[in-house]
Write the structure tokens for this entry.
Amino acid sequence: MNPIRVTVWNEYMHERTEPHIAAVYPDGIHGCIAAFLREAGYEVKTATQPEPEHGLTQEVLDNTDVLIWWGHMAHGDVDDAIVKRVYDRVMAGMGIIVLHSGHASKIMEKLMGTNSGELKWRENGDKEILWSVAPNHPIMRGVPEKVIIDHEEMYGEFFNVPDPDELVFVSWFEGGFVFRSGMCYKRGLGKLFYFRPGHESFPTYFQKEVQQIIINAVAWAAPQGILKIASGHTPDDAT
């Protein structure tokens, strides 16, 4: 069986322009995520926003089973044609995992059909408890029902997204806020998992439990025997 093909996409702005962020992620957030996914046995490529076509050519996407998306400070600079290209691939069966501030990305909003950038936030390094509300979900394999992240950016409800098909995680922050931090959606033939932790100032993606969640989410989101679906005018003898 061929390994799942993953492309880790990162805006890659903070790490190139802010030394304190580069100190946390010297290989970029995409490099950190790609490394532990390779260790898990996936076939992994990376792509970044500064590359031509943001690194997301049609060829790259056609050879991607699951796309991981991290963005924050330059959502508006992502070319609409590339967003449409990603959207079409998700509709055709590619999985997508949107991380942290990707909630406000063009691709997330296109897939949600709402202004998903609407939420509360506070960058205080609050303690977070990530609680599982679906302990038998495939994304929970090998993950404890309670994951403590010592320092994270707070996100708080209301989060303006459609009700998920499956809710996997709810976060509690020490200031008292709560947030739907792990949500699963079906979009066309594809699957989307939104996973909230991962602010660039904190080493969240080095935490083993967080890594395991993303590893599991890739397996969950990967297409399963997807065939090209015929559409349009169909003759009477199509059976």
